[in-house]
Write a structure and sequence with these properties.
Blueprint (H helix, E strand, L loop, with lengths): L1 H13 L3 H68 L5 H21 L4 H27 L7 H5 L1 H65 L1 H15 L13 H74 L5 H29 L8 E4 H11 L1 H7 L2 E4 L4 E4 L1 H17 L8 E9 L2 E8 L31 H11 L4 E3 L7 E7 L14 H9 L2
Parallel strand pairs: 2-4
Antiparallel strand pairs: 1-3, 4-5, 5-7, 6-7
Length: 535
C-alpha cells in the first residue's frame, strides 16, 4: 500500500521541469535572502544612525558643555580679580567668556534639539548662570576701574552660593551627556557585532546557493542548451532551413519547439520584408521622378510667364509715362498699382527661377575659399551696406568643396537680410563665425537687428512665408527658403538660434564635400531656349 502511494509521488516529482525546480529553489532562496537583506539593511541603518548620533551629536555636545564650563570659569576668574583689585586687565577674560558662552549655548541648543532631558539640563545651567551674573558678575563689571568694587566683598557669600549652584548644574549636564555618549558607544558596538553576523550568514548562504545552482545547471541544462545553441548558430549563420532539435527535459524541448517556430516565422518575415523593400524602392523611384517633374514644372512655368509679364510691365510703364498727370488722381493711382504689381511679379518670378536652379543649373562643385566668396558678396552688396552704415566682420573661413554660385547666393541672402532687417536709427553690426563640429563646419551669421520671434523660427524657411508686409520691408519671401535648399543640397542644416535675443543669429552647417546626388534633371525642349535667353 505504501509502495503504491510512493509511485505517484515519484512520478509527480519526475514530471517537474527544470524551470519548476529552479522556481522552487529560487523562491525559497529569495525568501531567506530577503529576510537576511532586510535585517542587514536595518542593521546598516541602525549602525549609521548610532554612529552619526555619536559623532555629530553626543561627542560635540559634551565638548561644547566642557567649553561652556571653561567660559564660565573665565568669567568667574575675571570678575573676582576685577572686584578685588579694580584692574582693567581682569575684565578682559570676563568679556571673552561672555562671547564664548553665547556661542556654546547656541551650539548646545542646536545639537540637543529634540532631547527633552538634555534641554532641561541646559535650561537649568542657563538659569543658574543668569542668577550668578545678575547678582554678582554684571554689577561688579559695571563698577568703575581703579579701585576694588565694594559689591565684590558685600556679595561674596551670595556669589559663591550662586556659582556653586551653577557648577552643580554644569556637572549634572556633563554627567548626563557622558552617560548618553557611553550608551551610544555600547549600542554601536552591539549593532556592529550583529551586522557582522548577519553578513557572514548571507555570505555563507550565497555560496551554498551558488554551489547548488551550478550543479543543477550542469546536470539538467548545460548539455541540452549546448545542442540548442549549436542549432541556433547554424541558423544565425544563414541556414534558415536548418531545423532546431528538441532535446533535454520537457521545458527545454518546449523551448526548442518555440525557437523552431520562431525560425519558421522569421523565414516568412524575411520574405515579406524583401517584398516590402522592393515596393519601397519602387515608391522611392516614383517620388524622385515626381519631385523632378515638380521642379521642372516650376522652372518652365516661371520661364513661360516672363514674356507676357514683360509686355504687361512695359505697357503699364508706357501708360505711366504717356498719360501720367493727364488723368484724374484715381487713374494715376491705378496705373501706379499696375506698375508696382508687374514689377513685384517680375521680382517674384526671378526669385522663383533662382530657387528652382539650386541643384539643377548651378551644380559645379569645386574647392572654394569661403573668405573669397564672402568678400565678393560684400562687394556686390556694397551700396546697400554703405547706405545702412553696416559694420561686417568675420572669423577666418574654411575652404570647402561646393558650388560657387550657390554659396554666393547663400551669403548674399544672409548678409542682405541682416542689413535689411535692422533696427531703426541703429547701424547694423554683423559678424560671421565658422568652427568645426564633428565631420561638418558650423557657421553663424549674427546681427543686432529686429530679430525673429521663436514661434516663427521654422516658418521663415518656408517659401513665400513673410513676417512683414511689403510696405514695411521689401522682398518675395524666398530668400531663406533658398538658403535652406542650398544648405541641404550641400549636406547641412540651417535654423534660427532662438536663445539669442539681441538680434538675429542664423546658424547652419556645411559638409567639407557635398553628398553625392543625381545630376540636374533635363529641361523640357520647349523651355531650353528661354533658359538660355533669360538667365
Amino acid at each position: 500500500m505504501n509502495g503504491d502511494q510512493e509511485r505517484p509521488r515519484s512520478r509527480r516529482l519526475a514530471a517537474w521541469t527544470t524551470r519548476r525546480w529552479l522556481r522552487v529553489g529560487v523562491a525559497a532562496s529569495l525568501v531567506v535572502l530577503t529576510l537576511l537583506g532586510a535585517t542587514g539593511a536595518w542593521v546598516l541603518g541602525r549602525t549609521a544612525s548610532i554612529s552619526e548620533e555619536l559623532v555629530d551629536v553626543r561627542s560635540p555636545a559634551l565638548t561644547s558643555a566642557i567649553r561652556l564650563e571653561a567660559a564660565v570659569l573665565n568669567q568667574e576668574t575675571g570678575i573676582r580679580g576685577y572686584g578685588l583689585t579694580g584692574t582693567s586687565e581682569f575684565i578682559a577674560p570676563y568679556r571673552a567668556g561672555l562671547a564664548e558662552q553665547e556661542t556654546d549655548i547656541s551650539r548646545l541648543s542646536e545639537l540637543l534639539h529634540g532631547d527633552k532631558a538634555a534641554l532641561e539640563d541646559l535650561a537649568a545651567v542657563q538659569r543658574a548662570l543668569e542668577r550668578w551674573q545678575d547678582r554678582l558678575a554684571r554689577p561688579v563689571a559695571a563698577s568703575p576701574p581703579g579701585s576694588p568694587s565694594p559689591l565684590a566683598t558685600e556679595r561674596a557669600a551670595e556669589g559663591k552660593t550662586a556659582f556653586d549652584e551653577l557648577r552643580t548644574a554644569m556637572t549634572a549636564q556633563q554627567d548626563r551627556l557622558r552617560a548618553e555618549r557611553a550608551r551610544s558607544r555600547e549600542d554601536l558596538l552591539a549593532t556592529m557585532s550583529l551586522r557582522n553576523g548577519v553578513f557572514t550568514a548571507i555570505a555563507v548562504l550565497i555560496l551554498a546557493l551558488a554551489a547548488l545552482i551550478f550543479e543543477g545547471l550542469r546536470r539538467g541544462i548545460t548539455m541540452p542548451l549546448e545542442q540548442l545553441g549549436a542549432d541556433a548558430r547554424t541558423v544565425a549563420g544563414g541556414d534558415f532551413d536548418h531545423p532546431i532539435a528538441e532535446t533535454g527535459p520537457a521545458d527545454l524541448r518546449r523551448l526548442g519547439s518555440e525557437i523552431d517556430f520562431m525560425r519558421r516565422r522569421l523565414v516568412r518575415e524575411l520574405a515579406f520584408a524583401e517584398e516590402a523593400r522592393l515596393r519601397l524602392d519602387a515608391q522611392a523611384a516614383d517620388l524622385q521622378r515626381s519631385n523632378a517633374e515638380l521642379e521642372q514644372f516650376a522652372y518652365v512655368a516661371s520661364h513661360d510667364l516672363q514674356e507676357p509679364l514683360r509686355k504687361v510691365s512695359s505697357f503699364t510703364q508706357l501708360l505711366q509715362r504717356r498719360y501720367g498727370g493727364q488723368l484724374d488722381a484715381k487713374a494715376d493711382q491705378y496705373i501706379d498699382f499696375a506698375v508696382d504689381g508687374a514689377n513685384r511679379m517680375q521680382t517674384l518670378i526671378n526669385d522663383l527661377l533662382a530657387f528652382s536652379r539650386v541643384g539643377r543649373v548651378h551644380n559645379t562643385h569645386q574647392s572654394l575659399d569661403l573668405d573669397k566668396v564672402l568678400k565678393q558678396t560684400l562687394s556686390a552688396l556694397s551700396v546697400g551696406i554703405d547706405e545702412a552704415g553696416a559694420t561686417i566682420t568675420h572669423d577666418p573661413l574654411p575652404t570647402l568643396v561646393a558650388d560657387p554660385t550657390q554659396l554666393g547666393m547663400l551669403w548674399q541672402n544672409l548678409i542682405g537680410n541682416a542689413v535689411k532687417f535692422r533696427r531703426p536709427g541703429q547701424a547694423p553690426e554683423i559678424h560671421v563665425t565658422a568652427a568645426p563640429e564633428g565631420d561638418l563646419w558650423r557657421f553663424t551669421v549674427t546681427d543686432n537687428g529686429i530679430g525673429i520671434d521663436p514661434e516663427y523660427a521654422d516658418k521663415v524657411f518656408v517659401i513665400f512665408q513673410r513676417l512683414h508686409t511689403k510696405d514695411t520691408y521689401s522682398g518675395s519671401g524666398i530668400g531663406l527658403a533658398m538658403c535652406k535648399k542650398i544648405v541641404e543640397f550641400h549636406g547641412g542644416t540651417i535654423g534660427v538660434d532662438t536663445e539669442y535675443d539681441e538680434g538675429t543669429r542664423i546658424t547652419f552647417t556645411l559638409a567639407p564635400e557635398p553628398p553625392p546626388s543625381p545630376g540636374p534633371s533635363p529641361l523640357p525642349e520647349a523651355s531650353r531656349a528661354d533658359a538660355g535667353a533669360n538667365p
